[in-house]
Amino acid sequence: MSSPAIAIVRVRAAPGRAAMLEQHLGALRDQLRRQPGCQSCELWPLAVDHWQMQSHWISQSELDAHLSGPEAQQWLGHLGCGSLALGLEFESLSAD
């Protein structure tokens, strides 16, 4: 089993889409909390149109399994397509 992992996502809303993106990210946070291997997930506003989501995972392999799954790909595709977000930053860190 690999060491614990932390995933950090920062997202900036497209013009006029801040409220819709915030709802979308809230639903994503709730969905992540139910994923196998996810220990916690929090969402913080960084600015009126900019958020950070941080999730803690039992292991890097659990995070990788989530990221390669169809639900994660659908969420990331929706965020990255430009209709809700201008940009998406992702980083994964070891919790050790």
TrEMBL record:
An example molecular function term from Gene Ontology annotations: monooxygenase activity
Protein name: Antibiotic biosynthesis monooxygenase
Annotated SUPFAM superfamilies: Dimeric alpha+beta barrel
Pfam families, per database record: ABM
Keyword Oxidoreductase: yes
Residues of the ABM domain: 5-75
Species this protein is from: Pseudomonas triclosanedens
Keywords: Monooxygenase, Oxidoreductase
Family matches, as Gene3D superfamilies: 3.30.70.100
